[in-house]
Amino acid sequence: MKRRHPASMHDGEPRMKNKRHPFFRIPPLIPLLLIMVTAVFTAGTLYQYRASGTLRTAMEGLSAETTLRIADHLRHFLSLPQIVNRINADAMERGLLPVSDQKVLERHFYNQLQLFPQISSVYFGNTEGGLAHSGREPGRFYFMATEDFRAGPFNKYGLGTAEERGEILHRIQNFDARTRPWYKKALAYETHVWSEVYILFTGDGLALSASQPVRDRDDRLLGVVSVDIFLDHIHDFLSGMQIGKTGEAFIMDRSGYLLASSAPDASIFQTNENSVPKKSKVLQSNSHRIKNAGRAIYSHLDHPDKIREIVSIQFTSGKEKYMLQVSPLQENSGIDWLICVIIPETDYISDILSSQRNTFFIIAAALILSLITGRLIREREMNFRNFFESIGDLVAVTRPSGRIIYTNTNLRQSLGYSREECHGMYIIDLYPEKIREEARATLEAMLEGKQESCLLPLMQKNGKKLSVEARIWRGEWNGKECIFGLAKDIRVQVEAQKRFERIFQNNPALMALWLLPESRLSDVNDTFLQTLSYRKEDILNKTPQELNLFPFPEQLEALTLRLNETGRVTNTEIRIQDSKGQRKDGIFSGDVISSHGKHYLLTVMVDISERKQAEIALEESRTVLEKTNKALSEAIAETKEMALKAERANMAKSEFLAHMSHEIRTPMNGVIGMSNLLMETPLTEKQRHYTEALRSSAVSLLGIINDILDLSKIEAGRMEMEIHDFSLDGLLENFMAAMAPQAREKGLDFRCSKEDEVPSRLAGDAGRLRQILTNLVGNAIKFTDKGSVSISISKGQQDARGIILHFTIEDTGIGIPEHKQPLLFEKFSQVDRSTTRQYGGTGLGLAISRHLVLLMDGDIGMESRPGKGSRFWFYIRLKKTDEEENPVTENRETVTGKDLLAKSHARILLVEDNVINQKVAIGFLQNLGFSPTAVSNGLEALEALKKAPWDLVLMDIQMPLMDGLEATRCIRHPKSGVRNPAIPIIAMTAHAMQDDRERCLNAGMNDYVTKPLNPEALTAALMKWLPETPAGSGNEALDLSDEDDKNKIWNKKTLKEFLGDDRETINIIVQEFMETAPAQIAEIRDLITKNDTGGVRFEAHSLKGVAAHMGAETLSGIAFDMEKKAKAGDLEGCRKILGHLQQAMAELKECMDES
After folding, report:
1. What is the DSSP code (8-state) at residue 129?
2. What backbone phi and psi angles, to 5 degrees, belong to 520?
3. Which residues 6+ apart lie within 8 Å of 449 measured at CB?
4. Same-domain check for residues 593 and 581
5. 3-state secondary structure of 544
6. Prior bond of 887 cis (ω within 30°)
7. What CATH number does residue 1107 fall under?
């Protein structure tokens, strides 16, 4: 029984007979040739047509998907700068963001960079050309600012530790924000605007600025606020895209300049003959693909400016063909770019190209064979079969009934069947069973010409589906009627379609697809349905009018008009309504696309209803905010007025204290000074007792004054630490020596211990440390009648910030009741009135000590038991220094009479207008072995310094005609006419406020002592600043009548010992020395100015050796002193010696000239 297949279209066909048809036995040459050529050409043409259509569809689909991804990314990327600009401009207009405070603006912009990582930089240019800029670059943030917030020098700073300006990374001399493109264009358009793409002034990239002018409420221009986005971001995005296999994309502007690309070999810069970078045009690109794509644009469209809709162009680069799709990207505020996507045909048709070559070979072979013999029909049939075997599509030949009689290898491999299995099947068996009826109807419609292709999937042998696009047509096979079937594998296109579907369905915006020309709804995403409260089945195939989407018909008409004119709508604000009639605001865009021969309108709308409502709420709150701001402004004004009054009162208090300090200290200087001088004279026991009481009372009064002044500094927040290197051992030794007499007088055991781990060389404020110890130890001795007072020092934690030292002072005194202890460190606080009457004191010492300890990053406390004694402790943080360094405070050796005798010939000039103070100071100096000269004001001091050499000046501050500060500035001036502008000057002043010392040192003085004069302090200052070789002794030594002293200046015998009596050589060496030595001294002076102790040490060492060989003993000795000072790092000592070095050189020259 003959088997009848259920899918057969006709009855079974008989087997093909082996006997040849008479037509094939002796074929005439011309008919055979025509048959062969026609068949091969038809098959090749048909294949080419089918392949090229499918290829173009796939390439257009990939280009459209790529363009949509790029456009969506760019629109999102370009929206953030506009939002940030609006925020900043609104804050500046309201006065909430001060436009005059450069650092506040930089910090505010830096916070915005933290909030919006997509932004490269935020900045503001004011009307004076100044700039405040915060930005990011790979791996770090930075600030850029003009100096003084105006046009001029421009610095780029790194990010500091406190998120403020750090070190300077780059500097430009001339910068004016008003000349930059972003500033000028914002003012020209008076609204939010994009600048032209421009090259960064650093020359290392392209940037685009979104700028907006800022005006205050009176419409006065404040400047321009701007946000930078570097196009490197777009370039990185494009480079990270996978466009097919080897596709590329680039973005250009309407002028033809390349802005960004995915091609690694495409540069956006060109360098002219002066090595100045400029933007590269597409036609000048070093990427061959992009350059040829640009040529194709200009060839087909004359100029990119004419592109108003999506354009597809085919072009050739080298031996390869490409499809180029160009899509405009436009924004209302100035963006007008072109998105260009390049798809190589080789990504899709490598197999097709191979088949084409085989096809042309077959045609050529067929022509040659036909000319040779027409009898080789079988060979021609085999070539025809080879053609089907070589193409990349799936090919099948069936009888009209549908039974398969031929399949190519590609079909069998794709579906997994053998040749024998295929030839036992019907074509309908290749489709899944569930859709076979649909497949049969589709195939019959295609044979009848009612349908062009079939997109139903085929079924592989393993049960998997294969996506294809199939076409069939009638023909002949071996002279019999047959049906040819060709199926194109469209899995890539289907996958691309699925990706588009995912983007379409998962997009947070409302997306819809409308079939043109009637604009009937073809598809929508879930966001569209959820936002507008529709069901999909209720709205498909309906128009916007039928859905009543637009409550305002004129909006729909305007959109339709724009679509008809340009084929697209971008970023247009519209209002639609949902199924319940509720209004929705949105940003609308639409593009016309094509698919499978049909035209659609793809629309996207971002719902901004909540933002609109927020804007309305913001506008409503503005009124409330303005009222609040007004009230706040009034409160701030009132607060400022109160603060101003408080500041004035504080200034008046400071001025009063400074004045009273000077007025009290001036007579106190006389009282203490005269009593000290009186103690040096022969006195009776009674007179000495009265004099000591007078001096003790004056010293006590001075201590009270000092405590009050310290307290005023603390209350004003102006107490500062002076950090210097010092020796802790030296400080403790001097302190114990000073306090021991008080303890010895009361018969107390007074001792001090220090752990071995405690370093001796430290850096800190040694004077304040001594003050703390004086207050605590002084109290311990004062309140202890018997027993002991001890001091112990131990080492605490050490880290990068320094070392902690713990100090403990214990006594066996009267102790302190527990309920009084919490008040002990308060101002003017004492245990009780009885102790005040018995022991005296103001109650300020411990309060001041507590503040000093806190300033040294420490703490202070105590424990006590009444009748048993007290234990006070404190710890402070100090810096540890190199053991080799020479400290400048408190480690000074005790000054001896021998030391002062060595300097007793020094010439000291005393500048003091007060006669009593003159006498006190002269008396002190005379007791020390000096013979000072006194003048009454600064003018007299200048005249004295011009006439004769001096070693040191003691300078009062407040004097008539010319005060001490002005006189010092005049002395230091190089053209002052004084003999030694670098002479040491020590200030003597009754002022004791915080700024007094800084004022003296800033004027050029070397040191500072306060009145009443303290003999120890004055002696220490003299020892510190008096030169090793006083001018007074030098004047005597340089008397050329004394041959020995002349030899000290220049001992000619030294040279003769080296050179004999060769006078010619001696003269040459002397002449060369006189040329080089002054230059060496000038170099030393410059190195001192530059604080280069290493250079000073080297030059002084060199000069010392040369001078010694020359026999210039005085010059060599002074150079040696300077070498030692430089080695110790004592620049001040070098400055003092410099004048003597120059004087010794002048005297040496004079001596050599005479010889």
Report:
1. B
2. -95, 140
3. none
4. yes
5. helix
6. no
7. 1.20.120.160
Residues 432, 457: contact at Cβ < 8 Å?
Answer: yes
Instruction: Assign residue 963 a region (left: φ > 0; alpha: ψ between -120 and 50; beta: otherwise).
Output: beta
Name the DSSP class of 657: H
Q: Distance between CA 816 and CA 864 in Å, rounded?
A: 6
Partner residues linked to 396 by β-bridges: 407, 485
Q: Cα(855)–Cα(849) distance, rounded to whole angstroms?
A: 10
For residue 424, the enclosing domain spans 393-503
Phi, psi of 974 (to 5 degrees): -60, -25
Backbone angles phi, psi at 404, to 5 degrees: -75, 130
Q: Please name the residue that has the structure tokens 């120059």.
A: 1142
CA distance 554 to 560: 10
Q: Are residues 933 and 995 in the same domain?
A: yes
The runs of H, that is alpha helices, within 391-525 are 409-415, 419-422, 436-447, 491-506
Question: Are 472 and 484 in contact, with CB atoms under 8 Å apart?
Answer: yes
- Which of helix, strand or coil describes residue 727? strand
Rounded to 5 degrees, φ, ψ at 773 are: -60, -40
Q: CATH number, domain at 478?
A: 3.30.450.20
Share of the chain above pLDDT 70, in %: 80
pLDDT band at 687 (very low <50, low <70, confident <90, very high): confident
Task: Please choose, from the candidates 115, 70, 137, the residue with its C-alpha nearest in 3D space to the C-alpha of residue 325.
Answer: 70
Give a yes or no: residue 184 inside a domain: no
Q: Give the C-alpha separation, 795 to 807, whole Å.
A: 9
Domain final position from 480, 503, 526: 503
Across the strands, what pairs with 8? none
Q: Please report which confidence band the pLDDT of residue 917 belongs to, taking 50, 70 and 90 as the band edges.
A: confident
pLDDT tens, position by position, 819-862? 887 778 776 555 554 444 445 456 678 888 898 999 999 999 99
What is the Cα–Cα distance from 516 to 560, expressed in whole angstroms?
Answer: 12
638-660 burial by CB neighbour count: b if 16+ within 10 A, else e? eeeeeeeeeeeeeeeebeebbee
Closest CA to 607 of 566, 645, 575: 575
Secondary structure class of 965 (helix, strand, coil): helix
Q: How many CB atoms lie within 10 A of CB 1123?
A: 21
Dihedral sign of CA atoms 1013, 1014, 1018, 1021 in order: negative
Q: What is the dihedral of CA 48, 49, 50, 51, to 10 degrees?
A: 40
The answer to whether residues 336 and 194 touch, using CB atoms and an 8 Å cutoff, is no
Identify whether residues 990 and 1137 lie together within a single domain: no
Claim to verify: residue 496 and residue 511 sit in the same structural domain: no
What length is written for the chain?
1155
- b vs e for 777-791, b when ≥16 Cβ sit within 10 Å of the residue's Cβ? bbbbbbbbeebbbbb
- pLDDT, tens digit, 9 for 90 and up, residues 231-252: 888 888 898 888 888 889 999 9
Q: Which of 731, 735, 729 is nearest to 760 (CA)?
A: 729
Rounded distance, CA 538 to CA 1016, Å?
105
Which residue(s) pair with 312 in the sheet? Answer: 325
Sign of the Cα torsion 653, 656, 658, 661 reads negative
Coarse DSSP helix, strand, coil percentages of the chain, rounded to the nearest 5 percent: 50, 25, 30
493-530 burial, b if ≥16 CB within 10 A, otherwise e? beebbeebeeebeebebbbbbbbeeebebbbbbebbbe
Q: Kindly state whether residue 48 falls inside one of the protein's structural domains.
A: no
What is the amino acid identity at position 149?
F
What's the structural domain count of the chain? 5
Q: What is the dihedral of CA 441, 443, 449, 450, to 10 degrees?
A: 30
Q: Is residue 318 part of a domain?
A: no
In this structure, the strands spanning 520-524 and 248-253 are: unpaired
pLDDT, tens digit (0-9, with 9 covering 90-100), for 593-624:
877 667 888 898 888 888 888 778 777 777 77
| Angle, helix 377-390 to helix 346-372, in steps of 10 degrees | 180
Task: Examine residue 39 and state whether it is found in any structural domain, yes or no.
Answer: no
Q: Of the ranges 25-29, 274-278, 531-535, 807-811, which is most confident?
A: 807-811
